[in-house]
Every structure is written in C-alpha cells, then in structure tokens.
Amino acid sequence: MIINEPTNVRDALKLLDIPIKNVNIVCIGKDQVMLDKELKDGDILHVFPIMGGG
User: Fold this and answer.
1) Which helix (H) or strand (E) holds 12?
2) Which residues make beta-bridge pairs with 28?
3) What distance in Å separates the CA atoms of residue 42 and residue 38, rounded to the nearest whole number?
4) What is the spatial distance between Cα 2 and Cα 29, in angstroms, rounded to a whole number?
5) pLDDT value at position 28?
C-alpha cells in the first residue's frame, strides 16, 4: 500500500478497513508499536488479530 501523506498506524488500519477492535498486536518490522506510531517510508506493518482458544 502506498500512502502519499504522513499517517500513523491507526489511520493506516482505517484505510485498510481493519476494525481497531479486532487488532491485538501491531508491529513495524520486529518491534511492537502503539497505534499512534507515525509510519515512515519503507515501514512494513504486521497486524495480528485477537485470537481465542484453549
């Protein structure tokens, strides 16, 4: 995905139509980040959903 303006993780998830309530962990590269983390050119965003089970 190419974003032509400064944005953070939360805004990127909205653009991807991913509900925030379904997100458990977000990483850029190998680092876990908060939703207000600004994205930079070349960042690779990894989104992990809430999972249940036992």
Assistant:
1) helix 9-15
2) 31, 45
3) 12
4) 17
5) 95
